[in-house]
Design goal:
200 residues; mainly alpha; 4 strands
Length: 200
């Protein structure tokens, strides 16, 4: 198991999750081909046991999806696991070329930086809707970070000259650097947390 590498190329040796709240929810077990084929679906909180690279790939299959609708079409990649697999695999190679660091570690740090700490929840009191700040659960923090990273990458590439691989690379590196001026996911995180701060 220790000799196994993600994409048969990237070792997880020395890669760890620094955020103690996210540690049980970001799995970085080695896997040559990150695809569990639903083997964990019968377990509670099975998403947390899936390799984080596999979770990124599955999120990339519906990058235009938000809440209960598609705000951008996902028709180019949906249902084609090998398409998104190749996108992420190529993106990892480019991340290494640009940063010189293990792309698995870069991805984990990007998720930690983009993960929400609190957000807004609305509930009805009498005839009005009250908005209050709530602490985001750890699993939702990982879900929202992955969603925001993939949506930001797809938004940068959709109908533009930039291809999806380069857009994904730029977004992950910007999130890794915690740079709100270049990362849409970090910018969105800061916007939501600022709203939550005003609703305390």
């Amino acid at each position: 198991m220790e000799d196994m590498k993600i994409f048969n190329k990237w070792s997880i040796e020395g890669v760890s999750v620094n955020d103690p709240g996210l540690r049980p929810y970001i799995t970085i077990t080695p896997s040559i081909f990150p695809k569990s084929s639903g083997r964990l679906a019968s377990q509670q909180f099975y998403k947390s046991k899936m390799n984080i690279v596999e979770r990124l790939i599955t999120k990339m299959m519906v990058p235009g999806h938000k809440s209960k609708k598609h705000f951008l079409t996902s028709g180019r990649v949906v249902g084609r696991y090998i398409t998104t697999y190749n996108i992420v695999k190529e993106a990892f190679d480019k991340i290494y070329e640009k940063t010189g660091k293990n792309p698995v570690e870069v991805l984990v740090r990007a998720i930690e930086n983009a993960a929400l700490r609190e957000e807004i929840a609305g509930y009805q009191v009498g005839g009005i809707i009250v908005r209050r700040a709530v602490i985001t659960s750890p699993q939702r923090r990982v879900d929202s970070a992955l969603r925001m990273i993939t949506q930001a990458a797809y938004k940068k590439a959709f109908g533009k000259k930039t291809n999806i691989v380069d857009a994904l690379v730029d977004e992950i590196i910007a999130a890794y650097n915690n740079d709100a001026s270049k990362s849409e996911s970090i910018k969105e995180k800061e916007r939501i947390e600022k709203e939550a701060e005003g609703a305390r």
